[in-house]
Design a protein that fits this description.
about 190 residues, disordered N terminus, alpha+beta, 9 strands
């Protein structure tokens, strides 16, 4: 009897891990991305983490530094217990300039080097597709400048959008509460 119960519990655990990806998940996107460490990944490789994502470009002198500060503020306010289940992801809208080396240098300059931080770049087509999913608009307005939305998005462990914070320097209490709520589902 005990053996049968243990067997059922193991099947339950594997069923949870093998849960199919929902139609609303970013893990359905087939795009390939390159990290600041020059590793190729797909978004589905991030499955199992709460994702906090923002789209920026490293040569930005206006909104992006504020978005980076907002992301660092969010990270600083997460407990260690929550942080272990969270990835803070910055996605470049300027893949031409933001090479893996540039992303790595940017992560060092901004003290975003711990395992929680991930910088991604891809092709223009993949970047546009991802931006559309996030409802982030961006447009190149000069050779080195973009106009873009200022949105921080939170995804649950299944890659489904669960919350968005819009604006610069806004109160992030609701964002942190949502991240914490989603991360606690893993404990």
């Amino acid at each position: 009897m005990i053996l049968a119960l243990q067997s059922c519990k193991q099947k339950e655990k594997s069923a949870v891990k093998e849960k199919p990806i929902s139609d609303l998940s970013i893990y359905n996107l087939p795009s390939k991305w390159t990290t600041q460490n020059n590793q190729d990944i797909e978004l589905k490789d991030l499955k199992g983490n709460v994702l906090v994502m923002v789209m920026i470009y490293t040569s930005c002198k206006s909104a992006c530094p504020r978005l980076v500060a907002d992301m660092r503020n969010i990270e600083s306010r997460l407990s260690e217990n929550v942080k272990k289940n969270v990835k803070l992801v910055l996605v470049s809208i300027d893949p031409e300039t933001d090479t893996p080396k540039r992303l790595k240098d940017f992560s060092v300059e901004n003290k975003m080097e711990s395992d929680q931080w991930l910088f991604l770049r891809s092709t223009e087509e993949n970047t546009r597709e991802f931006a559309a999913v996030l409802a982030v608009n961006y447009k190149k307005i000069s050779p080195m400048d973009f106009s873009h939305s200022n949105i921080i998005s939170v995804f649950n462990t299944d890659g489904e959008l669960v919350y968005q914070q819009e604006g610069l320097g806004v109160n992030s209490d609701s964002t942190i509460a949502k991240i914490t709520e989603e991360a606690h589902k893993l404990n």
